[in-house]
Amino acid sequence: MHAATVAKKLQPDQVVRAIASVTDHAHAAQRNVLMITFHYPPSNTSSGGLRPLKFGKYLPELGWQSSVLTVPTRCHESTDDGLLQQIPSGVSVHRAFCLDTKAALSIRGKYPGLLAVPDRYVSWLPSGASYAIRAVRRGQVDALLSTSPVPTAHLIGLVTKRITKVPWVADFRDPWVETEGSEVHGRLRLSVELWLERQVVRHADRILVTTRELGDYLTERYGAMIADRVQAVYNGYDEADFNGLGARADASDYFTVVHAGLLDVHYRNPEPILLAIRQCLDGGVLPQGKLRVRFIGAGAFADGGAMDRLIARLRLEGVVQTVGQGVRVSAYWAVDPCRGARGQRYCQADGRIRRRLRCRAKRARGYRATAGRAV
């Protein structure tokens, strides 16, 4: 697929249309949306935090002021205070009480699973819902927009919606319940989370997804109940982030593949792609010494040593590198080789890919086609 056909700019106007379609404030001079999001600066554990961050930047141009309900900084496994400078000056941020069940209640690495449904941050629900309800009743909020992961954000939206009747948009950046992975947490938890997801999609006035395929995935599960309320608002790049970025002079003979984001042994396991690379190298399909694979911000999977052991077992020490979260704008041709490794059908061509496709299309042409076909 050609980069120019995939790379998309941000489309905040679609978000505005989704919100306006469920509110009675289409012509009000001052309209306010409360965004409920776990990932938000200074968190840099997920690129998903860029979505609400950029919504907050551009919604005022379209007549909507925004505020943010999120969690305390201590709940994030990795932070970058430099990201705080990107929060728009007109956006107020409230950090409601929340604990990480794993960090706060673990004994020898184990913690009560009941206290991690739908996620480890479910303690955010009481304080978050309390704040949102008060904000609505004070007349400070005309609409809610909750975004996941993590799904507790949607539960805050659900409780607030049910009590105040405020219009509510639920934004799914990823699927919540993946039945293919039910064996990881057990059938009981799967049943509970499917019920919670059903309540969210039943009561949300509008459901946003990041791809049509994800919308189809949800519609297939819930049918006519949600079919007319699902709308795709794609991830994209912010052109302003690339202002002043000159073309990269790359004299390297390496073909470089970058995965930017978390890795996980269950849902985003790098072993299949690394095993394929090892086999291609051994079989002469890929040239020795000409390939680099970089994992940026891989999280606990890399930090805990599992990644190092995998690299050593496959003899890829000179090929695979893991680096921290510091790279924000890269001119590499990047793919996400691990998403979909378990056969998911909902195809998430997410913002990380789009930002780097934009780089490839405008800044870094000229990678050899033969290397691309090999990978």
Notable characteristics:
375 residues; 3-stranded parallel β-sheet; disordered N terminus; disordered C terminus; 34% helix; globular; single chain; 7-stranded parallel β-sheet; alpha/beta; 10 strands; Rossmann fold; 2 domains
What does this structure look like?
With 375 residues, the chain is an alpha/beta fold. It has two domains: 3-236, Glycogen Phosphorylase B (Rossmann fold, 3-Layer(aba) Sandwich); 247-374, no CATH class. It is 34% helix and 14% strand. The strands form two sheets. Strands 3-2-1-4-5-6-7 form a seven-stranded parallel β-sheet, with helices on both faces. A three-stranded parallel β-sheet has the order 8-9-10, with no helix packed on it. The longest helix has 17 residues, at 187-203.
Short recap of the structure:
The chain has about 375 residues and is an alpha/beta fold. The chain is built from 14 helices and ten strands.
What order do the helices and strands come in, and which of them pair?
Layout: H1 3-6, H2 12-20, E1 31-37, H3 50-58, E2 64-70, E3 92-95, H4 101-105, H5 124-137, E4 143-148, H6 152-164, E5 168-172, H7 182-185, H8 187-203, E6 206-209, H9 212-222, E7 230-232, E8 255-260, H10 271-282, E9 291-296, H11 300-303, H12 306-313, E10 320-323, H13 351-362, H14 369-374
Parallel strand pairs: 1-2, 1-4, 2-3, 4-5, 5-6, 6-7, 8-9, 9-10
Helix pairs in contact: 5-6, 6-8
The share of residues in helices is 25-40%
CATH class of the largest domain: Alpha Beta
Strand content: 5-15%
Outline the low-pLDDT stretches: 1-6, 326-350, 359-375
From the alpha-carbon coordinates, what is the Rg to the nearest angstrom?
21 Å
Query: What letter string, H or E per element, gives the SSE order?
Result: HHEHEEHHEHEHHEHEEHEHHEHH
